[in-house]
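ok so for the tutorial part 2 we go from a plain amino acid sequence to predicted structure tokens. step 1 is just haveing the sequence, like this:
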Amino acid sequence: VREVYAAAAEAQRAGVAACVAGAPVARAEEAGVESLRQSGLDRYPIMRFGYRVSLAYPPCWLEPLHIIRESERSFEPGMVFCLHIRFTVPESRFGVMVGGTYTMTPEGIELLAGGELELRIL
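step 2 — the prediction. this is what the tokens look like for a chain of 122 residues:
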């Protein structure tokens, strides 16, 4: 569990590092998945790497920005979004989720909530 969590946290850091104003949002998920690939955990499907947060989220869950490899959008100053690595290891009967809420400023990405959290095993 600790090794998987450490790999997920590293993938999260890689995705966050790829968040640059003007850069395609797809790069964030690509960086996270590449990090998971290096640890052999890319075989477990992850839920989308991120999504935009606004007044419409929740309860309607209809956000127009999905931070996934297929997205054609770019990061823009003023965006507020959630980035997370979340997947389940079925044969071990546990899952992991690491993430945070961020904003994109002209100077770069800024953490609003979450981020580097201590591992808690429930």
